[in-house]
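so my prof wants the structure for this chain in the tokens format not the other one, which i didnt know existed until like an hour ago. anyway here's the sequence
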Amino acid sequence: MASVVELESVSKLYGTFVALRKISLNLEQGRCCVLLGENGAGKSTLLRLIAGLIRPTHGVIRVFGEKAHDARDRIGYMSHAAMLYEEFSGIENLRYFAALYRERECMAPEAALLAVGLDSSLTRPVGQYSQGMQQRASLARVLLAKPELLLLDEPFSNMDAASAKQMLDLLAGLRAQGKTIVLTTHQRELAEPLADCLLTLQAGSVASLVERMAGARQ
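here's what i got, hopefully its the right format
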């Protein structure tokens, strides 16, 4: 199967500070890589590099065989912050973001909300949503542009157990549809059933890399 994400000895420096050191990874289509590590380990930096939002200091990153910043139309990036307008309802948010993709074929905003289990007729402002609902609305925003690669920074953050399980089920469904997923989390036990690879970072370096064969997840 074709590789979606390829990293070859990637390092990222900010002045003399080494945020990432010689990271290598190969992720095929329809698989999920979970990035683990303490705060400051380099997880979000790695996600931003794959997204093409920043560029490596050393090494090579290819996404769909291209430089990451050239593949951004095929990438959906969900940051740790929800990136939604709190005074708007979910459907108002998605209609606004859909209007920014005038030259691309997008999901209908109603369909994107339905895909994450939210009711498009809900008029309550997003600022009044629970954390779990906000995270799902943020994922709906990402799904609007029909990305093939999903990059999710702490998608389970501050969720209760039920909301986290809903998010996990959503991601498992997207993975089953052929989406490739890279996500960061502090909750290894929650994300592990979804993972085809578990990459643990420590102070910007790979502390461990566990890869599973297709069909080997519990």
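also thought this was worth mentioning. Strands lie at 3-14, 17-28, 32-36, 58-63, 66-67, 75-78, 149-153, 180-184, 197-202, 205-211.
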